[in-house]
Specification:
The protein has about 375 residues and is an alpha/beta fold. It contains eleven helices and 15 strands. It has two domains: about 130 residues, Aspartate Aminotransferase, domain 1; about 240 residues, Aspartate Aminotransferase, domain 2, CATH 3.40.640.10. The chain is globular. About 50% of the residues are buried. Belongs to the class-III pyridoxal-phosphate-dependent aminotransferase family.
Length: about 375
């Protein structure tokens, strides 16, 4: 049986990982500044993470949500303590970012009794039913996903938002920072306008923090830079440091009822052990503060390069827009052994390293980046 060929793959096979580094099958060591799409939050194979998963596996690895699972409540408590103002919210656990956003949209529709959702240009919310329809990429929307329930508006356009809002809107979904869209940041006033209009029309404000959450932005959630509070927040990626887990946190005024949402694997024992380990390490090692400090340092240094058109981001979610982004990224990987991400439609390299990246590792990247820029400038 062959694999269904839907991924454009690099030739490397990664066989080992530790901290901010990975090794390929030939023994080459790479500085990992991408973490598999912002998934690696506390570093590869962190000892505390490995221990908690192994310990849990020796007790019970899985049972469904038809029984008491106290480790879910333990995780909810630790998560609430880290969020900085959301400890009175409710947690629903699932398996992925797309599933988290599906449940967020479903919850908004249940709560309001409405169908319409506002999303924005360059948005990416997932590849499944409703959320792929709310993703601004027609190439991944199948005919079965097409719907007139999603209203797309220009990102950061407050006037367009005000004109579109009405009593038919169930929710407004927006990313804390657009990742696939090229590290685009919603302005403070834009998020505040969403909040005020949702309040006015009885809609839910849904913050997609799947890539930008879990401390990556230098705050636990990126939207907290703007001083707003959402009704529903979706999480995944860095939440489990590589173990599949997603979830939504839900405002107290939204009422639950049995059967409203559900999942077989969501919130299983091993997933919760992984997520608890992430919370523990973030708290003990002050990783949110480290993300802010190292992220600011990287962005300030990158802004000194004339070859860069723009540097965008918060914390350790950084976009480097430049004309020859693809050549630079390829050379970083093949010549300097540094892994980065990309937003090809936006000519942007994405940096999404583990939150415990050191200044020495940041400097290693900056020196390598300088070498590549200098070399490409000479050859061109």
């Amino acid at each position: 049986m062959n694999l269904f060929d839907v991924y454009p793959l690099f030739p490397q096979e990664l066989v080992k990982a530790e901290g901010s580094y990975v090794w390929d099958e030939k023994g080459n060591k790479y500085l990992d500044l991408y973490g598999g799409h912002a998934v690696i939050s506390i570093g590869h194979t962190h000892p505390h993470y490995v221990k908690l998963i192994n310990d849990q596996l020796g007790k019970i690895g899985f049972y469904s949500n038809s029984v008491q699972i106290p480790i879910q409540k333990e995780y909810a408590t630790k998560l609430g303590e880290l969020t900085g103002g959301y400890d009175d919210y409710q947690l629903f656990l699932c398996n992925s970012g797309a599933e988290a956003n599906e449940n967020a949209l479903k919850l908004a529709s249940f709560h309001t009794g409405r169908k319409k959702v506002i999303a924005f240009s360059k948005a990416f919310h997932g590849r499944t039913s409703a959320v792929v329809a709310a993703t601004d990429d027609k190439s991944i929307i199948a005919p079965i996903n097409e719907t007139d329930n999603i209203i797309f508006l220009p990102f950061n356009d407050e006037a367009a938002l005000e004109a579109a809002m009405n009593n038919e809107i169930a929710g407004v979904i927006v990313e804390g920072i657009q990742g696939v869209g090229g590290i685009q940041i919603p302005t403070d006033s834009f998020l505040q306008k969403i909040r005020s209009l949702c309040d006015k029309f009885g809609a839910l404000m849904i913050l997609d923090e799947i890539q930008s959450g879990c401390g990556r932005s230098g705050k636990f959630f990126a939207h907290q830079h703007s001083g707003v509070k959402a009704d529903v927040i979706s999480m995944a990626k860095g939440m489990g440091n590589g173990f599949p887990i997603g979830g939504i946190i839900i405002a107290p005024h939204i009422q639950a009822k049995h059967g409203m949402l559900g999942t077989t694997f969501g919130g299983n024992h091993l997933a919760c052990a992984a997520a608890i380990a992430v919370c523990d390490v973030i708290k003990q090692d002050n990783l949110i503060e480290n993300a802010a400090e190292i992220g600011n340092y990287l962005m300030n240094e990158l802004k000194k390069f004339d070859a860069i058109k723009e540097v965008r981001g918060y914390g350790l979610m950084i976009g480097i827009e430049m004309e020859n982004y693809a050549d630079v990224r390829k050379a970083l990987m093949n010549e300097q052994y540094i892994l980065t991400g990309v937003s090809g439609k936006q000519n942007t390299i994405r940096l999404l390293p583990a939150l415990n990246i050191t200044k020495a590792e940041a400097d290693h990247f900056l020196k390598a980046f300088d070498k590549i820029i200098t070399k490409l400038a000479v050859t061109n």
